[in-house]
Design brief:
The longest helix has 27 residues, at about 25-50. Helix content is about 75%, strand content about 0%. The protein is built from twelve helices and no strands. It is mainly alpha-helical.
């Protein structure tokens, strides 16, 4: 080895090494940012500015072809919804991580149920422009159902030898429940949650199967990169700080719903 090679190797050893990682807090920020854009698309742009409910499908298409402002707003609405798709795998993954590491499952479930009830009126206002609608239920109901599914899968592993047909029955029941009551992101979230839990010890398989399932939302597989980079740490917001994220969900729905209604 000559002096130049030695000097180069010494320089490499002293260079800072960067490693891209995602902890739980960063994952939640990513998920909520994506969900915000999804809600913004529907409440402010589609309901507030475009008033899509007033158009028949052919009328909206005609308006887009004749009015450049309608075309522009429609483009932004589609773009923001595509961004929103990133949130689906992220929250399904975080739900599984929370289930695996929680010290109080009952408290975890209670938090999701309370948040789902509190968020329902803001969700209806944001999505449908009214304080009460049975056209769909907010995503927190989806997570509560998925958490019950995870509990059922754990019981089967502990008591029934991990029979796959029983596990499939539990997953199918949760999926049917979400579809029947029209929970937001229901079917995809349930399937992703099942994948991330059942293959939790196989990182490559978990991510690949998750990407395959999440194609229900065109951009959702991109979140597989964030899941791959997850370092297993909860992040800075632990303890009572985690309730900030519970509060953000109904608050952002309420604010955007009020803006959309005022436009």
């Amino acid at each position: 080895m000559n002096d130049d090679d030695y000097t180069l190797n010494e320089a490499k050893r002293h260079l800072p090494r960067f490693r891209v990682e995602m902890d739980g807090t960063l994952m939640k920020i990513l998920g909520y940012a994506a969900m915000f854009f999804y809600s913004l698309s529907i409440s402010v742009i589609q309901n507030g500015l475009l008033h899509v409910a007033d158009y028949a499908p052919d009328e909206l298409a005609q308006a887009m072809s004749t009015d450049p402002n309608v075309m522009l707003l429609s483009g932004w609405a589609v773009a923001f919804q595509l961004i929103g798709g990133l949130a689906v795998p992220v929250f399904a993954f975080l739900l599984v991580e929370g289930f695996l590491h929680t010290s109080d499952l009952k408290r975890y479930m209670l938090g999701l149920v309370i948040c789902s009830v509190v968020s329902e009126a803001p969700y209806d206002l944001c999505m449908y422009g009214t304080w009460w609608s049975m056209r769909g239920q907010n995503a927190m109901f989806t997570y509560a159902i998925s958490l019950m599914m995870l509990y059922g899968l754990r019981m089967l592993e502990n008591g029934q030898g991990g029979r796959w047909f029983l596990k499939l029955l539990v997953v199918a029941a949760a999926a049917l429940w979400c579809v029947t009551v029209r929970c937001a992101f229901g079917l995809c979230t349930v399937l992703l949650t099942a994948v991330y839990y059942l293959w939790r010890e196989q990182k490559s398989m978990k991510v690949m199967l998750g990407c395959a399932v999440s194609v229900m939302y065109i951009t959702a597989p991109i979140s597989g990169f964030a899941i791959w980079l997850y370092n297993g740490r909860r992040g800075k917001l632990t303890g009572n700080g985690k309730y900030i994220f519970y509060a953000l969900y109904p608050i952002h729905l309420l604010v955007l719903g009020l803006i959309g209604r005022a436009l």
